[in-house]
Specification:
The protein has 2 domains: 12-128, Winged helix-like DNA-binding domain superfamily/Winged helix DNA-binding domain (Arc Repressor Mutant, subunit A, Orthogonal Bundle); 164-253, SH3 type barrels (Roll). Helix content is 46%, strand content 15%. A hairpin with a 6-residue loop joins strand 3 and strand 4 (178-181). By secondary structure, the chain is an alpha+beta fold. Strands 3-4-9-5-6-7-8 form a 7-stranded antiparallel β-sheet. It starts with 11 loop residues before the first helix and ends with a strand. It is built from 10 helices and 9 strands. Helix 1 (12-28) crosses helix 2 and helix 1 crosses helix 4.
Length: 256
């Protein structure tokens, strides 16, 4: 199944139309061409053409100059779309602490692209984080503290160990792979990014460069306050400031 398909085999545009129709019926009791056109910001002839297609596919009943009604299939499809959007919006607000307007806009983008298995696993993750009796019930609140964390020196205690270990290099319990800061690697050493530190501005700069957890890199040149570190990832050389190098935790591959 394609990531853009639903069990109803609707296009993204058709999904948008069905959601708008359901919203209008819930708000105004009726859905009309001109109201749909205003909501979707398209011309009335475009809406009319789309309605004929939805009617032909059995999702609505529609004749010219009449109100649009959802069939049983259309009701089921539009309800599924509405609940999927609501869940994704809630996930982004409740777990990632995004503002409501951003969460709603992002949910509109995500809902058309997620494979059903991805959606199902996001639901399981949401349930795990919010309801699992074996999990620390404060974990989501702790995550929100970390998301809005001030500079590292002012981090609340529950955030410090998430981002900054007490010492480098170190190994995790039960693992033999050594973790170290990028700034502490030797020239020619390779590794995989494990974690980006707590400074929001630095983290966003590194993300914009494409230096994300799971990215393999090699340190070409050590830097200092006056000259940047040089690292290579996927054939591209990046300049990294010393502050940035001290906020990247790397799982080290041993030197040959």
């Amino acid at each position: 199944m394609s990531s853009k398909e639903t069990i109803f085999n609707l296009s993204q545009s058709q999904e948008d139309y069905l959601k708008i129709i359901l919203d209008l019926i819930n708000e105004k009791k009726v859905a009309r061409i001109k109201d749909i056109a205003q909501r979707k910001n398209v011309s009335m002839p475009s809406v009319t053409e789309a309605m004929h297609k939805l009617a032909d596919d059995g999702f609505i009943t529609y004749t010219a100059r009449e109100f649009i009604e959802l069939t049983k299939t259309g009701q089921a499809a539009s309800q599924q779309l509405a609940t999927r959007h609501k869940f994704l919006s809630n996930f982004l607000k409740d777990i990632l602490d995004l503002p409501a307007e951003i969460a709603d806009a992002e949910a509109c983008l995500l809902e058309h692209q997620l494979h059903p298995t991805t959606l199902e696993r996001l639901i399981v993750l949401y349930q795990f984080l919010t309801n699992c009796p074996r999990l620390n019930t404060k974990i989501v609140q702790q995550l929100k503290h970390c998301l809005s964390a001030p500079p590292a020196t002012e981090l609340p205690p529950e955030c410090q160990e998430c981002f900054l270990k007490t010492s480098y290099p170190h190994t995790l319990a039960g693992q033999s792979i050594v973790h170290n800061l990028l700034a502490e690697l030797t020239e020619g050493q390779e590794g995989v990014i494990i974690m980006l530190g707590p400074d929001t501005d630095i983290r966003r700069t590194l993300i914009a460069k494409g230096l994300l957890p799971g990215t393999s890199l090699k340190l070409l040149r050590k830097g200092n306050r006056k000259r940047p570190y040089l690292v290579i990832c996927a054939g591209i050389t990046y300049k990294i400031t010393q502050d940035e190098a001290n906020f990247i935790e790397v799982a080290i591959k041993e030197m040959p």
